[in-house]
């Protein structure tokens, strides 16, 4: 693809170039001259001058680095205005450096090279994300027929405005990692008016055509080791998908238009993936129920269910069936293309 060829590779340098003040740069230049003179003459006096210049340079650099560290530490705070620099610095100091060991393949042989590790992860993820087959073939046929049936007429979705795009770009955290195209929120936040208008035209065209562009679906997958898991097992790693920021902005725009429909469908006690509804509120709701039953001398039973890999093996046809049945058809066609 042209975009892949023209986009510079995101190569991280292993060593960070240090910046020194002018007096240290001058001292480095002086030492290089003395060293060059000693390489020519090999006189003991020139060697003595080189050793003394080297020691003086080390002392000056050490003193400069100590001042930089003290200045950096004095500016660390736990407040938001400094991006919680104190906690970030503490985390970097305490966080252990993980070693990436060889991985076990499905046949229990070892994957040692990067290509072998990538293949082992790909085989594992393909197996994990394969949806389960339907246990009732008749129901599966009914759902397939319903998905092929005509759609009901409904009013068009609200058009995207430049103000909405600018607001969503500003609300995106600048610390989020970009996708494969390397476009981050800092770049988008500095777009001129013409760039915002271009995004508005692009989003409105996607809504009008009920089409989700395929380029926004390409994710850069990073495997993160789960805490306390065996590092040599491929199942011990959690995949993190880094999607293009433009696609994530479009998803937020669609969610804003879908939210009113979802609020009318979802029950009030469902807190997952809903704004201003966290675990604390659910804990209060649970304790209130327990307290009420105890005060009225009744029994209180609780059932806690955990479905392993629930989102990994979502039944797509069943999910599309619910979307088509309960939401306007614009959302069905748009989400179907994703």
Automatic annotation (TrEMBL):
A Pfam family matched by this chain, by name? Answer: RVT_1
Output the PROSITE patterns linked to this UniProt entry.
RT_POL
Xref: InterPro entries: RT_dom (IPR000477)
Q: Which domain of life is it from?
A: Eukaryota
Where would I find the Reverse transcriptase domain in this sequence?
Answer: 205-338
Q: Which PANTHER family match?
A: REVERSE TRANSCRIPTASES
What name goes with this protein? Answer: (apollo) hypothetical protein
| Organism of derivation | Parnassius apollo (Apollo butterfly)
Q: What is the lineage of its organism?
A: Eukaryota, Metazoa, Ecdysozoa, Arthropoda, Hexapoda
């Amino acid at each position: 693809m042209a975009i892949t060829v023209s986009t510079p590779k995101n190569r991280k340098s292993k060593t960070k170039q240090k910046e020194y003040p002018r007096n240290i740069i001058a001292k480095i230049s002086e030492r290089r001259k003395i060293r060059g003179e000693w390489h020519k003459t090999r006189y003991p006096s020139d060697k003595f001058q080189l050793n003394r210049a080297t020691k003086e340079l080390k002392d000056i650099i050490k003193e400069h680095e100590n001042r930089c560290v003290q200045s950096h530490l004095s500016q660390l705070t736990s407040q938001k205005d400094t991006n919680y620099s104190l906690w970030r610095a503490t985390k970097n100091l305490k966080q252990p450096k993980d070693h990436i060991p060889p991985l076990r393949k499905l046949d229990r042989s070892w994957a040692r090279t990067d290509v072998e590790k990538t293949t082992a992860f790909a085989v594992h993820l393909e197996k994990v994300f394969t949806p389960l087959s339907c246990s009732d073939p008749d129901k599966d046929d009914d759902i397939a027929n319903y998905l092929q049936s005509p759609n009901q007429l409904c009013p068009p979705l609200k058009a995207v405005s430049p103000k909405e795009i600018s607001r969503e770009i500003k609300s995106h955290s600048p610390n989020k990692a970009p996708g494969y195209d390397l476009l981050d929120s800092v770049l988008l936040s500095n777009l001129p008016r013409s760039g915002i208008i271009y995004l508005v035209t692009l989003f409105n065209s996607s809504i009008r055509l009920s089409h989700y562009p395929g380029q926004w679906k390409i994710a850069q997958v990073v495997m993160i080791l789960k805490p306390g898991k065996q590092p040599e097992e491929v199942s011990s790693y959690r995949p993190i998908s880094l999607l293009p920021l433009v696609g994530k902005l479009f998803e937020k725009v669609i969610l804003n238009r879908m939210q009113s429909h979802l609020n009318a469908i979802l029950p009030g006690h469902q807190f997952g993936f809903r704004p201003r509804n966290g675990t604390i509120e659910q804990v209060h709701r649970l304790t209130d129920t327990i307290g009420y039953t105890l005060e009225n001398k009744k029994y209180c039973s609780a059932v806690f269910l955990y479905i392993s890999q629930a989102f990994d093996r979502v039944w797509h046809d069943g999910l599309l069936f619910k979307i088509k049945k309960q939401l306007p058809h614009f959302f069905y066609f748009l989400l179907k293309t994703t």
